[in-house]
Write a structure and sequence with these properties.
It is built from 18 helices and nine strands. It is an alpha/beta fold.
């Protein structure tokens, strides 16, 4: 068996944490199995230290312009839908782009965009990158792990990036590995001293990232962090109407409104539109009337597997532990209630992407620090206790209606 890895950070974690379990399972599947581990990305060899990327590898990755262009061209300021509650993040993004385009020093480094899943972080980050690229700046926009690997030289040394504007989406993954945190800390220092722009997106406020080092936390605290609020009904409705015209689905207004009410983010709307587009392509010969009629059935049917709510999560957890939902949400603190409450809070955070304040408001107006305690406690239990991990996965499936 030949095993290769997407990047060096993943390899290091695999060899440290996953390898014993992996080899144990593999030996039961195939006796006398010989496993060869790659010494670098996509290369197999002996089990020596992974080689660090040389200049040619860095150039190949940094100059993959065709793929990056396809990604960036989807996102512009013109098609970014927003309302007053996101005025500040958008104004800060415009101001940053204007100053960097004029060859001025970035007003903020790092510039951080955070918000729950589906709030538009990737779109705003991509719009900034796309605008700067059109203005002649050398831009990288993509995966933080791949970029960190490209600048890592080993022994705590890092290469000077070729790009003068760096955009890293889902930067919270850097908090999972000490080596990636060190690389991101070094990257921030490089950008500060050389006048480069560094823009990061997070799924939560950077200060709430779990297990973040003090050095990285201090660097992030020196930048500007803006929060994108999730799209409300007016934004979702405008987006759905726009997609309806773009895809020529000919959905009626009441059907679009019904669709928008069933999802709380843009990706959910995209999912509905993808199903409707696929359905339309299969039955286009039947005419628009048949498609319009069946579109309503598709939307109603798909709602059965839609995203759960905090109330439905609490109900499933309460039923499993034979307690009442009111006890989980209430003020009781005995052991019979604490674990169900911790699990319910963790699932609301993990599955729904709700903010700590939103979860605290649902769970008896608890302070966000109490919610953060429950989330961190469950994360530690999931890493250390297999029974708790299996229980959480079973409850997750129940909440999704898969069991």
């Amino acid at each position: 068996m030949r095993v290769v890895f997407p990047h060096l950070f993943f390899r290091e974690r695999f060899m440290r944490e996953v390898r014993p379990v992996f080899e144990n399972i593999a030996s039961h599947i195939c006796k006398n199995l010989q496993i060869v581990y790659g010494t670098g990305c996509g290369q197999a060899g002996n089990d020596s230290q992974p080689r660090r990327p040389d200049k040619s590898i860095f150039q190949a990755r940094a100059n993959s312009k065709e793929r990056n262009n396809l990604l960036l061209e989807q996102f512009t300021f013109d098609n970014f839908l927003f309302n007053r509650k996101n005025d500040f993040p958008l104004a800060a993004a415009h101001d940053t782009v204007d100053k960097v385009s004029a060859r001025e020093l970035p007003p903020f480094t790092p510039f951080m965009i955070h918000g729950q899943s589906g709030s538009g972080k990737s779109h705003l980050l991509g719009a900034m990158a796309n605008a700067l690229k059109k203005n002649g700046r050398h831009v990288f926009c993509g995966d933080p792990a791949a970029f960190m690997e490209n600048i890592s030289l080993g022994s705590g040394r890092y290469a000077d990036p070729e790009e003068d504007c760096i955009f890293l989406d889902d930067a919270q993954i850097c908090a999972r590995e000490a080596s990636m945190q060190a690389a991101l800390t070094a990257l921030i220092d490089i950008c500060l001293t050389s006048g480069r722009l560094l823009v990061l997106s997070f799924d939560t406020h950077p200060s709430l990232c779990r297990d973040i080092s003090q050095k990285l936390a201090s660097r992030l605290a020196s930048g500007l962090s803006v929060e994108l609020k999730p799209p409300d009904m007016s934004i979702r409705l405008a987006y759905a109407e726009k997609q309806n015209k773009l895809l020529d689905l000919e959905l009626k207004s009441e059907l679009i409104l019904n669709l928008v009410r069933r999802t709380q983010d843009i990706r959910g709307i995209d999912g509905y539109m993808a199903r409707l587009t696929a359905f339309r392509s299969m039955v286009s010969k039947q005419g628009a009337g048949a498609v319009s009629y069946d579109a309503s059935a598709i939307i109603d049917k798909n709602a059965e597997g839609s995203k759960p709510t905090p109330a439905s999560i609490v109900e499933q957890v309460a039923r499993h532990f034979s307690v009442s939902p009111e006890d989980i949400i209430g003020k009781r603190r005995d052991k019979a209630i604490s674990l169900p409450r911790h699990i319910a809070i963790f699932l609301c955070r993990d599955m729904l992407g709700l903010s700590l304040v939103q979860i605290g408001g649902f769970f008896g107006k608890r302070d966000h620090t109490s919610i953060l305690y429950s989330v961190n406690k469950m994360a530690r239990l999931l890493d250390s206790d297999n029974d708790t991990h299996r229980l959480a996965e079973d409850l997750r499936k129940l909440c999704l209606g898969r069991r």
